[in-house]
C-alpha cells in the first residue's frame, strides 16, 4: 500500500489523492503517523497516511482467497533483495555544507531557547574526535538555564540533538553545559551510584533510581560496571526510563 506524507493528515491525504488521481470516496485511508509540529521546528514529524483504492482492495481480498497455499511463499521469494549499504560513505562538499549549516542553525536555536527562559546567553562550541560537540553556555542566570535537577538544560540538549539528527549529514553527539554543571553532576551521579549499590547489597533487593536521560544512565552503568557485588540495567520507557541496581546472586 502506498504511503504519503504531509504537514497534516489532511494534507497527506490530499497528496495521495492527487498522486492516485482518485476522489476521496474511492479510497480507504489508514493513518500511519499523526505527525507533530515540534518546537522551533525541532522534532517536527510529518503526518503519514496509507491509501488503498477500494476497487483494488476488493480485488486483492478476492485474489488472496483464490490463491493456493504456496503462493505467499513464491511471492516472498520473488521479491528482490535490498542492495547492501556501503560500509563507509565519502564526505562530499554537499555533506560538509549540510553539516556546517546544521551546526550554525542549532547554535541559533539554543540561544533562542535560552532567551525564551529569560536567561539570554552566549555560547562557544567545540568539536572533538568522533563528532562529539560540547556547547558551553555563558549567562548571568545559570540557575534558569539549568532548571530543577537539570531539567531545562537536559531538554535544550535533547532538542538540539534531535535537530542535528534530522538536518546534519554526520552523526553528532551534543553535550550542553552551563558553567561547571556537568562536572558537578558527574560527581553527584558517582556518589549516587555508590550509595544505591550499598543499599542494594544491604537489603538484598534491587534499588531503583529516579528517571534520568540516557547519557546520565550511561554514567551510572559505567561507574558500577566492574562491581563484584551488583549489576545494573535500565527499565521503563523514555522519558521515564530509569536505572535499577541489583545485588549479584551469591555463589555458594
TrEMBL record:
<comment type="subunit">
    <text>Forms a complex with KhpA.</text>
</comment>
<dbReference type="Pfam" id="PF13083">
    <property type="entry name" value="KH_KhpA-B"/>
</dbReference>
<dbReference type="GO" id="GO:0071555">
    <property type="term" value="P:cell wall organization"/>
</dbReference>
<dbReference type="Pfam" id="PF14804">
    <property type="entry name" value="Jag_N"/>
</dbReference>
<keyword id="KW-0694">RNA-binding</keyword>
<comment type="similarity">
    <text>Belongs to the KhpB RNA-binding protein family.</text>
</comment>
<dbReference type="InterPro" id="IPR032782">
    <property type="entry name" value="KhpB_N"/>
</dbReference>
<protein>
    <recommendedName>
        <fullName>RNA-binding protein KhpB</fullName>
    </recommendedName>
</protein>
<dbReference type="InterPro" id="IPR036867">
    <property type="entry name" value="R3H_dom_sf"/>
</dbReference>
<dbReference type="InterPro" id="IPR034079">
    <property type="entry name" value="R3H_KhpB"/>
</dbReference>
<dbReference type="Pfam" id="PF01424">
    <property type="entry name" value="R3H"/>
</dbReference>
<dbReference type="GO" id="GO:0005737">
    <property type="term" value="C:cytoplasm"/>
</dbReference>
<keyword id="KW-0133">Cell shape</keyword>
<keyword id="KW-0961">Cell wall biogenesis/degradation</keyword>
<dbReference type="GO" id="GO:0003723">
    <property type="term" value="F:RNA binding"/>
</dbReference>
<feature type="compositionally biased region" description="Low complexity">
    <location>
        <begin position="72"/>
        <end position="87"/>
    </location>
</feature>
<feature type="region of interest" description="Disordered">
    <location>
        <begin position="72"/>
        <end position="95"/>
    </location>
</feature>
<dbReference type="InterPro" id="IPR001374">
    <property type="entry name" value="R3H_dom"/>
</dbReference>
<dbReference type="InterPro" id="IPR039247">
    <property type="entry name" value="KhpB"/>
</dbReference>
<keyword id="KW-0143">Chaperone</keyword>
<dbReference type="InterPro" id="IPR038008">
    <property type="entry name" value="Jag_KH"/>
</dbReference>
<dbReference type="InterPro" id="IPR015946">
    <property type="entry name" value="KH_dom-like_a/b"/>
</dbReference>
<keyword id="KW-0963">Cytoplasm</keyword>
<dbReference type="GO" id="GO:0008360">
    <property type="term" value="P:regulation of cell shape"/>
</dbReference>
<dbReference type="InterPro" id="IPR038247">
    <property type="entry name" value="Jag_N_dom_sf"/>
</dbReference>
<feature type="domain" description="R3H">
    <location>
        <begin position="183"/>
        <end position="249"/>
    </location>
</feature>
<comment type="function">
    <text>A probable RNA chaperone. Forms a complex with KhpA which binds to cellular RNA and controls its expression. Plays a role in peptidoglycan (PG) homeostasis and cell length regulation.</text>
</comment>
<dbReference type="GO" id="GO:0009252">
    <property type="term" value="P:peptidoglycan biosynthetic process"/>
</dbReference>
Amino acid at each position: 500500500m502506498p504511503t504519503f506524507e504531509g504537514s497534516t493528515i489532511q494534507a497527506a491525504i490530499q497528496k495521495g489523492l492527487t498522486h492516485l488521481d482518485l476522489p476521496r470516496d474511492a479510497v480507504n485511508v489508514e493513518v500511519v503517523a499523526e505527525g507533530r509540529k515540534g518546537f522551533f521546528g525541532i522534532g517536527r514529524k510529518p503526518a503519514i497516511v496509507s491509501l488503498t483504492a477500494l476497487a483494488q482492495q476488493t480485488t486483492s481480498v478476492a485474489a488472496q482467497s483464490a490463491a493456493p497455499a504456496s503462493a505467499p511463499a513464491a511471492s516472498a521469494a520473488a521479491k528482490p533483495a535490498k542492495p547492501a549499504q556501503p560500509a563507509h560513505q565519502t564526505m562530499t562538499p554537499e555533506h560538509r555544507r549540510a553539516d556546517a549549516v546544521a551546526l550554525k542553525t542549532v547554535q541559533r536555536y539554543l540561544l533562542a531557547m535560552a532567551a525564551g527562559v529569560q536567561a539570554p546567553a552566549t555560547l562557544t562550541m567545540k568539536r572533538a574526535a568522533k563528532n562529539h560537540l560540547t556547547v558551553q553556555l555563558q549567562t548571568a542566570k545559570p540557575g534558569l538555564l539549568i532548571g530543577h535537577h537539570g531539567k531545562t538544560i537536559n531538554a535544550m540538549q535533547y532538542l538540539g540533538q534531535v535537530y542535528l539528527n534530522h538536518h546534519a549529514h554526520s552523526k553528532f553527539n551534543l553535550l550542553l553545559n552551563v558553567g561547571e554543571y556537568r562536572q558537578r553532576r558527574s560527581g553527584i551521579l558517582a556518589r549516587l551510584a555508590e550509595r544505591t549499590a550499598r543499599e542494594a547489597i544491604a537489603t538484598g533487593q534491587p534499588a531503583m533510581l529516579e528517571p534520568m536521560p540516557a547519557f546520565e544512565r550511561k554514567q551510572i552503568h559505567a561507574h558500577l560496571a566492574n562491581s563484584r557485588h551488583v549489576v545494573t540495567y535500565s527499565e521503563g520507557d523514555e522519558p521515564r526510563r530509569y536505572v535499577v541496581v541489583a545485588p549479584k546472586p551469591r555463589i555458594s
